[in-house]
Specification:
The complex is a heterodimer of chains A (290) and B (242). With 290 residues, chain A is α+β, with helices and mostly antiparallel strands. Chain A is built from nine helices and four strands, in the order ααβαβαβαβαααα. In chain B, helix 6 links the parallel strand 9 and strand 10. The chains are: A alpha+beta (290), B alpha/beta (242).
Amino acid sequence: MKLRTFFFFLREALKGLVRNRLMTLTAMGIITIGLFLFGMFFLITANFRYFTTLAWEEVEIRVFLEPAARNPEAVGHKLAALPGVAKVTFISKAEGAAALERMLGQKNLFLSGENPLPDAYTLKLTETADPKEVTRLASDIPGVEEVVFGRDFVEFLQMINHFTLVVGLIFLILTALAVLYIVANTIQLTVYARRKEIEIMKLVGATDSFVRWPFLLEGVILGLLGAGLAVFLLTEAYAFLVQRLGLYRRFLPLRADQELKVQLMIVLFVMGLFFGSFGSRISLKRYLKV
Amino acid sequence: MSKKNLNIGEEVVPLLVAKELTKIFNNGVVALDQVSLSVQKGEFVFLVGPSGAGKSTFLNLVIRREVPTSGLIKVNQQNIALLKKKEIAHLRRSIGVIFQDYKLLPQKTVYENVAFALEVIGASPKEIRERVYNVLELVGLLNKAHVLPSELSGGEQQRVSLARALVNRPLLLLADEPTGNLDPDTSWEIMELLREINRRGTTIVMATHNREIVDKMRKRVIALDHGKLVRDTPKGGYHLEA
């Protein structure tokens, strides 16, 4: 495409947006609302994932060694090499006893003076690890007597994790489709308002792509403006929420990192761009048949 | 589409040919029924007949707004029904069309409405300026170039529409009831313009109800009735003379 032609299209698109001010504002408002809703679900899903990740970090597997285990370090190396193990910490029998005494608030726990606890390791897992598999493999290592982990809690967490992923995805897809539907319909209204113009363009010999370009650019501009507004509103509202809920951070931790904001911006702008251009493309189809 | 080579040897190739052209709409209405005719380059042809006779359908088939159900239609030796999308756009650039309702863009000025037909084909700004002013001079609207259509009279609006149709220097000009919304005096102004344009070499096919115009102009008359061609008279009148 010649640069002159592109600028002609851009000029036509901008003229179209300004001339049909009311339609422009309506379409932009609807795109903003749609993307705001989508962004809201995006943030909710991201935070749910964050909660489960935080909880997952609390999960640990305890590996107790046989009292006669001769080389605890060798066992430690083998444990660290297992797939899904993120971190291995050694707890000597003395440390174990001290921890137990601290927990129970009682000194000289063992009357006999002899510490019956074995040496142990605690394992932290990676996010994708399968605790059952890690348990099974750890039990097979020579020198290991028993492997203990909070099976119920882990299974519950895994379930929640799956659930948020699936439900989150379904919600995001449904919202995206709903937004696309609304946006396409709104753009269709703007196209309908200008069907006469399209008819005349076609009658004087304009090709379909010539007719399409200004509308496509209008759609893109509308999509990006709507996305910009949605990003602004969402980040402000979210920042307010994070600040307000700061007191309850321990119970309801919210992600407040820059990365999430950048992700949100990218997702919404890409969606705005896609909805705007795709929306005008499908809306135009009918009116190009002249 | 080539504007040259219309003559092959001695034989003159018609600009517009219809052979057993038939159009039946989806609702079963037979708009055109086995119509055969040909129009030579430079002719001025009136297409007459009552409402629903098939005049507009015929014009719509020429510019490929409709596709024939059967039969053949050719413009400048090109079979219109076989054209691809892009070729349809190119066909339309060689055919100017004016309508009863002018079909002007209300938010564009006279100049912009005419220039639009050239922008669509990617003409350079210099070429657009020259051609638009030339054609506005031809239709006598140079002084109204920067006025919106809503500020013009019906006759003036039709002249803008005519300017837009002519600015691409078409081989063929189709006029669908161009005087339908105009008073007799204004209608004659438009007819004088059409006559002048025809005199300069543009072939014109005009669908009309206006008996007085047809009778006075004494041009070729093709009459349609219920989709059938019922008369084709050189230098004829609106009705068959007794």
